[in-house]
Amino acid sequence: MPATASPDLTALVRRHAAAVGADDPLTARRAEADYARCCWSGGHRTPGELSDDLSGAFHDLRRNAASVLGLDKESHDSAMAWAGWAMTRGDGPSALRARARLVLDEAIRWARHVDDGTGSADIADVPLLGRIVNELPAREGDPSPAAEPAPPSLVDAALRVEEAATLVRRTDISAPLANWLRDQSEAPGAGNLVDTVTLMDARTLRTAGDLPAAARMCARALREPVGEPVTAGFKFRLELADYSIMAGHDDTAARPLDEAAADAGEAGLPLQRLTAVRAAIPVFHRLGAARRLRDMSRDLVDSLDGMPDSPAIRDVRAAAR
Q1: CA–CA gap between residue 17 and residue 22 (Å, rounded)
Q2: N or C: less crowded end of the chain, CB within 10 Å?
Q3: How far apart are alpha carbons 150 and 241 in whole angstroms?
Q4: Does the pLDDT value for residue 42 go beyond 90?
Q5: How many whole angstroms separate alpha carbon 122 and alpha carbon 114?
Q6: Same domain, yes or no, for 95 and 185?
Q7: Helix, coil or strand: residue 299
Q8: Mapping DSSP to helix (H, G, I), strand (E, B) and coil, where does residue 189 land?
Q9: Each residue's pLDDT tens digit, 197-224
Q10: Which of 189, 222, 238 lies at the terminal end of a domain, its last residue?
């Protein structure tokens, strides 16, 4: 990367880190898009122009952008580099956050390549999950609303590990974590976490086979989000679209996908818009809405200029032809 880009990258990494620290997802998502557009680097090593104290924040930023772009290896490598940096520095909270992402990657690999649909994962197949769970809080029994918020790194890691445990169908791990997260969502100032826990609970209902109840929960939260409304609304719309697809109602799924893409575009969130349009491709194909999909994709393509070649962008460019 040319030296003239150094101040921009440094400022960008600092902006993203500050947004993460302030629980400001809208600013964080915009910073991730700016990084993908103007500062993407081909390797996961920290660019030389960044000071070492910004390495962890850089890997976090790159991880998030790569995940949306569908660059799975780059995303995983960034989490690995982040974990290594944090452990070398003795930064326990950062190491926990990075390792939780590696646990999620492990769960995704199990779901894609090992799961035969007959049961839950053996811990031998997801060893990172087995190791990290002992470092996280959990709650059995009656609800115990938190009077004060827990450290953000702990909440962040618990969310990722709960998602991973749910994915591999280890309810013995996911349920106590979910209970603790529900308690944390009662703490003062837990706005964004309230919406995240609502999404978590809706997915639990979905897994149990109660799609109507899951959809009602998301629809209520979409109408009245507790935290930052744009990013929360985006997630709830995608979830509602997923439920419609699972129920075989592509026509119903098309509307929240359309709305998610439009809202993301208006909010200056091209990566989230990319996610919505990419999710809409198979739906609109099945509906025979080729022109509608082409227009939707073409509107997005220009905002992706400068971003790296990736599966997500290739899919949308193909739909725009």
Answers
A1: 9
A2: C
A3: 32
A4: no
A5: 11
A6: yes
A7: helix
A8: coil
A9: 999 999 999 988 999 999 999 999 999 9
A10: 189
Token pair recorded at residue 50:
């960044």
Clarify whether residues 115 and 137 are in a common domain. Answer: yes
For 111, half-sphere exposure in the C-beta direction (CA atoms, 13 angstrom radius) is: 14
* Spatial separation of the C-alpha atoms in residues 319 and 279, rounded to whole Å: 12
Between 132 and 2, name the one with better pLDDT: 132
118 lies in some domain: yes
In order of 148, 251, 292, the CA distances from 64 in angstroms are 28, 31, 29
Q: Which of 161, 189, 217 is the last residue before a domain boundary?
A: 189
Cα 68 versus chain centre, distance: 8
User: What is the per-residue pLDDT for 302?
Assistant: 86
Q: How far is CA 315 from the centre of its chain?
A: 19
Quick one: which of 293, 219, 287 has its CA closest to 256?
219
**Same domain, yes or no, for 100 and 149?**
yes
Domain count, the chain: 2
User: Which residues, 6 or more positions from 86, have their beta carbon under 8 angstroms from its beta carbon?
Assistant: 56, 92, 94, 95, 97, 98
Q: Residue 151: which domain range? A: 91-189
Helices (H) and strands (E) in the chain, counts: 15, 0
Cite the DSSP H helix spans in 138-269: 152-167, 171-184, 191-207, 211-223, 229-246, 250-266
Count of alpha carbons within 13 Å of 205, Cβ hemisphere only?
Answer: 18
CB 58 within 8 A of CB 11: no
Amino acid letter for position 100: A
Residue 225 forms part of a structural domain = no
75 part of a folded domain: yes
Contact predicate 87/95, CB 8 Å: yes
Provide the mean pLDDT of the chain.
94
Residue 227 counted as domain residue: no
Whether the model pTM is above 0.85: yes
Rounded CA gap, 182 and 201, in Å?
9
Looking at the fold, whether 107 and 65 belong to one and the same domain comes out as no
